[in-house]
Amino acid sequence: MGMDVVLVVMLLAGPAGSPAPPEPPLTWGALVGSGLFTIPDTSTLPRGRFVAGVTIDNRDRDPLGLDLMDGAIAWNYGLTGRSEVYGRFIFNRSVAVPDTPVLPPPPLDQILAPGTTPPRRPFYSVYPPTPYVDDTGAIHFGAGTPGDGLVGAKVRALAPRGWRPAAAAVLELQFPIARNLRDLQHGAGTGGFDVRLGGIAEWPRGRWSFVASTAFTRVGTPPFPDRRIEWRDGGVKVTDEPLILPHRLDAGVGVRRVLRPNLAAVGEASTVFDVGHRTRIVDRARPIDILAGLQYRRRRFRVTAALRDHLHALQSMAIRPSPLAGMVDVTKVADVDLARYLSAIGLGDAVPSLRLGVHRLLVPGPGGPPLPPGSRVIPDTYRIRSEHQVGFLLLWGMTF
After folding, report:
1. How far is C-alpha 153 from the chain's CA centre?
2. What is the pTM assigned to this prediction?
3. Distance between CA 351 and CA 148 in Å, rounded?
4. Does any domain span residue 21?
5. CATH no. for residue 220?
6. Taking residues 36-45, what's their average pLDDT?
7. How many domains does the chain fold into?
8. Which pLDDT score is estimated for 354?
9. Could you tell me the sign of the dihedral formed by the alpha carbons of 174, 176, 181, 183, in that order?
10. Contact status, residue 286 vs residue 275, Cβ threshold 8 Å
């Protein structure tokens, strides 16, 4: 009788020493979360697994010919078997501006002499993710200017079946780390809060995997408007004009070919479209990025490396007519000299309305006094600078 009980218990418990179910394979490391390089795929980390790493992202962007280098701490965590949360903190962003912008960038104080009219937009060039950037920041990596932060979540919605792809959804919040004007002029970001909602489809075919991704980003309002200062109705009139950035629609496709269980070759292409009402700018250039490289994973370690080519660059050294021809950039004029000049043209009461640290544009009247020292008359034309279109992406990570 005792032996019968033992046999029943053994049958219910299963074979002695049976192996535990295999752990799901680790995902591949991407710039944010699990994915290709910049495009997420539908995979998620196993529940309870945590990945932390360091990323370096170098890219070139028009219309100002910017060279951006981000150093970031990135992480992701397996929340359930079908979802993960992730984040990124850009602790260092360096932005190289090849030339002093001929057209003063925002935020801009426009000072209108009596009898003049304000310039009509567009009258400056802007790269929307860093709208206030100028040439005052340190260009070497490690200068300490922060970028922005991001937190997000990805949920797998469908498993692949036949030609039906796997599907997943992502939700992200991007937030500013610094909102002071100096850091924003060095390229820290927009200073606003962005929300991104996207969808991913993935078709696994043996060693191959094909990914398509699209997302809409609602871009927040940047904190510093343009300001117009003029004489009207017997006094100084101040009008703030907000800088309205476009919302974004991202689209990307990519492919991964697993060469060995711990090594894969990856290629991807992505672009972004401006949507919605926005402030008009000069020389808007829509980036198209092509990336190719490798992803490696072994035990706890992950390494991802890729080269990036920006294919939709503007024609460098092309000459364009200036929308601000004949107006005067007085950003570098000493405050006392500018106050003296404004008093001479009847705008002495405008001095308290001038903001510190912003760019200043003077619309001079005919036959006025000599311009103050440090003034720069904006020429009739300017040149496009668009150089060094090859960048790279690196990621080092460890799994816990």
Report:
1. 18
2. 0.87
3. 34
4. no
5. 2.40.160.40
6. 96
7. 1
8. 95
9. negative
10. no
